[in-house]
Batch of 2 targets.
Target 1
Amino acid sequence: MGGPSRATPHTTSRAAVLDVIRAAGTISRAGLVAATGFTGATISTVVRALIDDGLVRETGRAESTGGKPRVLLQLDHGARYAVGVHLDPMGVTYALTDLTGAVVSRVTRADAGGDDPAAMVARTARQVDALVEGAGVERDRVLGVGLVSATGGARPLPSMRHWAHFPVAEELERACGLPVVPGNDATAAALGEYWSGGVGETSVFAAVYMGTGIGAGILVDGIPYHGASGNAGEIGHVCLDVDGPPCWCGARGCVEALAGPAAVVRAARADAGLARAAELGAAGAGGADGGPTDGPGGGGRAGRSEAAEFAAVVRAARRGEPTARALLERSARYLAAAVRTLANVMDLDLLVLTGPGLAVAGSVYLPAIRSELEGAFFARASHPVEVRLSASAATAPAIGAATMVLQSRLVPLRPRVRLPEDLSESAAPAPR
Amino acid sequence: MGGPSRATPHTTSRAAVLDVIRAAGTISRAGLVAATGFTGATISTVVRALIDDGLVRETGRAESTGGKPRVLLQLDHGARYAVGVHLDPMGVTYALTDLTGAVVSRVTRADAGGDDPAAMVARTARQVDALVEGAGVERDRVLGVGLVSATGGARPLPSMRHWAHFPVAEELERACGLPVVPGNDATAAALGEYWSGGVGETSVFAAVYMGTGIGAGILVDGIPYHGASGNAGEIGHVCLDVDGPPCWCGARGCVEALAGPAAVVRAARADAGLARAAELGAAGAGGADGGPTDGPGGGGRAGRSEAAEFAAVVRAARRGEPTARALLERSARYLAAAVRTLANVMDLDLLVLTGPGLAVAGSVYLPAIRSELEGAFFARASHPVEVRLSASAATAPAIGAATMVLQSRLVPLRPRVRLPEDLSESAAPAPR
């Protein structure tokens, strides 16, 4: 019989119950039955297990609404903690969150992680220890460390090729004595915005992240959309000109090659007056020039990262340099078109602009993106897409990295139901 | 506490079990436990209910593998049926499928559905009756009728504005005496390919559908990805030129405006020699010219639909008309870039080209799309994306429409878990 050997994906009842309790704050067993659709028996069993694990506690009774008062449940905030680490050329941000994703403590080190992986791992492990001890949290309550970057936690910078074979996660795990969950900074940024409660009711939500490159993290009902290989949301390679300049990805006219931070900096450097006014450094080796043989745009050289150079161009525009302003407005037009494509393909209802690039240049990019979406969607009588600047651009990826640990250690999505070959059995004739 | 009031989405255990049995063909209860991760008790309960409903039957025993032989289960193919109707300007296709989505009978009427909604509904109802009776299927075993088109089942052609307020689904329901499930033809095409077993193991699969317009249907693990408002996969409005021609959607440089079938026909008409050679009709009123005031490209006039005119251009190219060939190759370049964007954003692992437009012109579009994806993904060392021409372009949407009925009537996705405001209760101090 036809059809691929796979059933519908689904999560555990434990996951659903824990998530509803987190979202509600306090809720009764009856409330959980109504919210999840599970039977009272299932809810009782799941809640009992969560209480036994110390994750949930009974916290009081709902004011009687006629019937007998109902016992309320809530997460035991301090039952578990997680650390999130965001490796970014602009610096490394650490966040310690409780079971609810609320930030207990955080710190940023203006340090791209250096160029020596072993040293970076040692430094990171020391910082994690300091963060946990400083907050007075019992170490055995820390579930693990989420490690995110533009390269999925593997390297602070895409251009650090010599890191490619260095097992950062494994080494950090050894150094910290804690499980390490690696991830993508754009997806972590989306999770951070979501768990921080900043996005409210939304079904399909994307965080557009502009750091050295451009990416997007996508959540569907709060669950990261990963795609077939964990590379979903690659809007940096949305094509905006079939005859455009070659991109390192092998294609032409990608938004990153046309208008990403590295492209803006490249154009600014090409303008002697602007380069001087913005105090840009000379183009360096490594990933800085974003050419076809290069990794994702920038930051590979010693000295200022591409993101820092981009910030310098933004400052020049703020000071009134017309060429700097024009470069950013052109970049914003292109990014707006790429974002419209993302909104069309994924059918988003909310978009948050984040990452260091958009944190410094949001005043230019936000209006361009809003007007692009309003024009297109109004005419099609489609629903509006809300666009916001992140209120926590600097810390959202680190918070999201911590929530990745909470999700993976407490409420793992049940592995997609697969049908092993050996389960498809050949029938012997039925007894007559 | 932060976080939106919503838990993770999940489907019923009945859905998962039914889908695993469908995919396996035959499987034992032990196999179901292993495949779904549910307990033996849950499986027994669910299977019992499915047998009582007559959907599943015990079919024999697995050859003994040491232990005692296990009873095998399979869907009762003939227990339920569904009808799928695909309204397309090229004609209306009807398919009757059994419980497994296998086609029992199908027919195509070369008839765009006419211009009178009431007459179309009456004609469709008569055809559904004839199909069911002709196949000797008991009517009370037919679950319903899936009705799909470029406008979500509402109208055969986007340009039929006077249909906008005609309740096609409700009227057809009345005329047939069967529930009608309306849907989008691109999503139905993807479901049809999936249930027909043509796509095999795939996690994120898209069917790119080119009819009068361009769209994509996306399945994640076999479940349609709808987005926030059911409009996901709108690749017709992927921007490929920020300074491009205005699109009816309100934006500029959309692939549909640059290179969709209507744009190709428009360009062909502008070339007197080619228009003659391809025997194109003059541009008509209504949706034919795809201008900004118009609905999705084409087909609004009496006489040949835009899709038929596009087919005429394709035939001219086959006969060696260089200008026709050039127009199609240019269109293919643009569509390839849009498809690369779709593959990047959704992280696809399989793509099937379907719909009347790609069925007639696949020999031009397939190589262009393949080379575009190979170039881009190879350089990024990402996984390859397999691209195929549909083997059942003509019937996939109708089959998918029928499977929409099977899905919605037998294994409805449990509504997304929401947390009504009134479930979030205020805590009274816990008794000490």
Target 2
Amino acid sequence: MRKSRGGKELESRYVFRGKRVSVKVTTFALPSGKVTIREIVEHRGAVAILPILKENKIVMLKQYRPAIGRWIYEIPAGTLEPGENPRECAERELEEETGYKAGKILKLFEMYLAPGYSTEKLHSFVAFDLNPGTYHPDLGEEIEVIEVSLEKAIQMIDLNEVMDAKTIATILYFVNSNRFKWREKLK
Amino acid sequence: MRKSRGGKELESRYVFRGKRVSVKVTTFALPSGKVTIREIVEHRGAVAILPILKENKIVMLKQYRPAIGRWIYEIPAGTLEPGENPRECAERELEEETGYKAGKILKLFEMYLAPGYSTEKLHSFVAFDLNPGTYHPDLGEEIEVIEVSLEKAIQMIDLNEVMDAKTIATILYFVNSNRFKWREKLK
């Protein structure tokens, strides 16, 4: 039953402590006992929300991302504040980024974005019963809210026009989920 | 047409240069002209490969990941060597991690894993016509090769037993793709 065994952090040295990420160089004892040194990016975790409007439309953002130097389609998302509950973060980010308040938010799944070097866990949600909130998002000029049909979003993924991991995983998870049977509804 | 406009890196200071990742603090002029400071994790990019065996079975790995301190199901994957072609990297990693050599490797899509702070782009492939290669993988004790049906893998995703972003996105992309019509074959 070696798979159930864990490893152990032996020693860590922080080489960077930032606002968004920190980096440590860690000496780690693997479950086998073998010792390895790893560069680990620490991140507080994040949420993503798939907002479902009436008539199978969804809300996406077209957003400029400095890290990759380009515009990219994403679903609403954001980083957890320290100690923040993922569901509350999802409600907050949805309203901040789209102006919509959700009547119902359901958890879809959790995933690690880059488990080879990052601690980041993303909590993925789907939001229904959307109504304009009291908050008017200050979008600036680096983010644009768009509404597309779920069919169109799936097609955009297939054509690789959507290139964001959380967006691809969340939309395809939702349409494939046995819980929502959405694929049957789309037929 | 402001969406087609780009931003501009004004100044960067490296705060960490590692083997796997480097981190820079960058002053960036957004497309709107607004100036912002960002922590950016630089990564060379990676590949992931979905190996399709006979009778709709696929190869997955159960792997211990120090960054998240746990075992996780993943498809074979690896980091690009400097200057390495993604397809060659995919062939190499597939054989190194599973012992299989692919007769046919097709590109599926590209995606950014964490575009909010990481430059990492992942190139996703599907591999067919698999035969045992000449290379015998040295798996150590931190990685186990498993074979499961595609149906079972989809169910494991739905139950959130698969928690790795590239694995969720690649498997669901493949079964939903109009190019492969796999969903119809699974019926």
